What does this fold into?
Amino acid sequence: MLSNRLSSITPSYTISISSKVSEMKLRGIDVINLSIGEPDFNVPNKAKNFGIESLNKNLTKYDMVPGLKILREEICNKLSKENNCIYSPDEIVISSGAKNCITNTLLALLNENDDVLLPKPYWVSYPEMIKLVNANPILIDTKEDNNFKLTKYDLEKYITPKSKLLILNNPSNPTGSVYSKEELIHIVDFCTKNNIYILADEIYEKICFNNKFISVASLNEDAKNITITINGFSKFAAMTGLRLGYSASNKTIAKAISTIQGHLVSHPSLTTQYIGYSALKECSEDINEMVASYKKRRDLICDKLNNIPYINYIYPNGAFYVFINLEKIKEKFNYKKSFSIDFCNEFLNRYHVAVVPGIAFGMDNYIRISFACKEETFLNGLDQLNNFILDLKNSFSKNL
Ligand SMILES: Cc1ncc(COP(=O)(O)O)c(C=O)c1O
It folds into this structure.
């Protein structure tokens, strides 16, 4: 028999889409995949070479649990220079990807039945991670006319006596919304007054187009004390498969995270850490180029979406996704169980385009498309979305 904790866990929607896409490709079908949350760029060459050199020097033995000292020092430099946050290396723990940092943090902070405040729409893995550590996700409704950004009024409505942690993802996956300094200050004030920690997942921080990115921990000393900042190398340095991320928190929490990591994984791959060190220290030009491409793509994709009827979308100021509202189509769509799943299945089966159903992010009237792919790919995918919607419109008129 498997453990009870698995009974409430939903298998990943994104993984099930990927397997469907692979299966269609095996059948020779040319699928346009706009479901992927992974950069289509490669790891910068300098960074790769630094990793190769480390291997040639046989830097392959066990090392420090919270991560290589030089990498933690470099992360502190980065946090100070780019985010105006002063941390010491013993407040940083490097892990195998941001996912690993988040689960370590949840294990370090939460007791059974603690409540975790989670604004909707949320990144797919948060609720499942919370349930895996036997805590409860408290899902918070946010407002579309505020680009689904959390406010202290939303928090006031949902706080419980057992609320211990808020998860705040900025820039957001799936909406691409980015918080202003004022918006963050209100949230931090609420959390300090109510003794709630903030897990600030800032993994898309560098992919930020319009506003200057503000780190939660940079706001004031209180903010820094209650915040566990999570970041990773998957998105900004295109290092998804290499698995590298880090958390920055106060010393007590960092020590707890490190103790947990010591027993579970020791530390992430040393080669990956050397690659990450060089990516942070020496590859800002490559990174700026990638961000400039995402911005160009964001502009193109929004121009195209503006011409597709019956949809609205959240204008993304960061990350590489667009969250599209299909409410107007839902009224007419003949769906059985979940609108967004049925819509996405039909889109994939008939038009060969893969996108993620909004239900994966807790919002069934939506779909998420990714522009972490070539222009031609997402432009073709949007042509197909337009065709699908026009076909539906024709069938609406027949039903009138
Ligand atoms: C908001 C958010 N946090 C964390 C992660 C996990 O990143 P990593 O590859 O570093 O584990 C992702 C990946 O898609 C993400 O979108």
Summary: The chain has a mean pLDDT of 95. DSSP finds 14 helices and 13 strands in the chain.
